[in-house]
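Fold this sequence, please.
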Amino acid sequence: MGFGPMNIIPKATNDTTAPGVPAGDWQQVSNTKAAWQATGPSVDADNSPLTGLTFVQAIFAQMTAEEAEVFRNDPEGLLAVPGIQIQEVDITEGQTVNGEFNIAALAIGRDHALFLRCADHPRV
């Protein structure tokens, strides 16, 4: 029996242990859906215990890892990118939450990136 078609899943690696950074991942679950997961951090940027997280913001964008890196320190610029999808989900320190994004039919075969950031203020 021969092999079927090959799937290629490029993803960039990140420092998911950086204090204050939510850990997460995403995977394509069908031709039209991507499932994501995020875990809230438990220590702040100064390594002190983190308390008071309220929600995680997950942003899904069609872009390469190199293009995504441009927005690491420019979240406002990321929010201006056409076609992004945004979800906000309640989260606490160390809690894991999940969600799904749509994949456009014409985007199959193109790179996508998941951005995660946590907040300690109420949603507006």
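The chain is about 10% helix and 30% strand. Residues 23-119 form a domain with the Immunoglobulin-like fold (CATH 2.60.40).
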